[in-house]
Design a protein that fits this description.
Length: 76
Amino acid sequence: MMRKWLLITVPVAVLFIILDLFLAEHHVHFLWSGIPGFFSLFGVIGCLLLIGLAMALGAYWLQREEDYYERDDDDS
């Protein structure tokens, strides 16, 4: 299923970047605004960083061991 979405998403993203080169009017205020596909790449990288941060937060702070509620804290 993941491969199917990847095979659809990547060509559509490339198509939009190519269309951006030819059809969009560019008003460059910053250096990175003139780079074709910058904001698409910036969005993907930002989403991946947020997912990674959420997974790390869940693994190190939220998840508990399987016997967390069954442990006797007096033995510690």
